[in-house]
Amino acid sequence: MDIAQAMDAVGGELNAFTAKEHTCYYAHVLGSDLPLAVDLVADVVLNGRCAADDVEVERDVVLEEIAMRDDDPEDALADMFLAALFGDHPVGRPVIGSAQSVSVMTRAQLQSFHLRRYTPERMVVAAAGNVDHDGLVALVREHFGSRLVRGRRPVAPRKGTGRVNGSPRLTLVSRDAEQTHVSLGIRTPGRGWEHRWALSVLHTALGGGLSSRLFQEVRETRGLAYSVYSALDLFADSGALSVYAACLPERFADVMRVTADVLESVARDGITEAECGIAKGSLRGGLVLGLEDSSSRMSRLGRSELNYGKHRSIEHTLRQIEQVTVEEVNAVARHLLSRRYGAAVLGPHGSKRSLPQQLRAMVG
Predict the structure, then answer these.
(1) 313: DSSP letter
(2) What are the pLDDT digits (tens) for 181-216?
(3) 2-149 under CATH 3.30.830.10, yes or no
């Protein structure tokens, strides 16, 4: 309560989120309240309470969050798809856990995890906005204390092994719903791949915008679905290039036929020079526009240090995007889009045999 009142008193925000490979605790305050923000973030991270009563309260909160996720088909499908694609690999597991795992988790396990993982050599402190670097360093030294000053050398960023065991599979959750939701995709190399920006251009041209192949063919030309897009998630060991669509069950087969045709066409013939230029422009604009607020800049700084061990400037990234050629994109398409797909389906379908043949053929 004291922390909540202190943050409310200055009109700020103190929160946290967990991604597949990192957890972030952050504060958003006026520049004049930076000392308070550093103090509170340090207190939460280093001295977080793990009292028995607190654990039980938070357990109930997380179970409610899991139930809320399960009630949202798109959110539930996202976790189902990564599990279908990556199996028992850590990125195939939902960040939030399962109702079963959360229900049996003990206070001792949480304390042990905190002691092992919340150590200075694993931390990155990033800030953006109305902040002075030297002043921030002084505040970090003051509030994180000797745990940072005399800590071991920072843990090097994970480069990944590039190996994910097992094969992608097809998962079906039968649910009485108005729509069928589907995600299908392929494993890709991880974020350290030399062609990762060509892969980003491919993703954008496939389904990253209003002019993308999938959006035009599935929605604009045929009106088969309202929501259709592609996504690209890159991790240390691997990545996922996926397509999502939601449609009426009676249109599911047509959506899969058109989607399969688009993917096959791009794998065989590639994208055009014009599509490549539009996709590169979209990536450049999205990157720059996304950094108009200080929270996005803070997040980018932190992830850059965690993932690469150094700051990667906006200019560096823009140069990488600009250097991508249509020939490189099409080589990536030929290399990746012929791989075995993984897929997850949520909707009113009784069995996998009742699913469209095009989908079952892509999963193999």
Answers:
(1) -
(2) 999 999 999 999 999 999 999 999 999 999 999 999
(3) yes
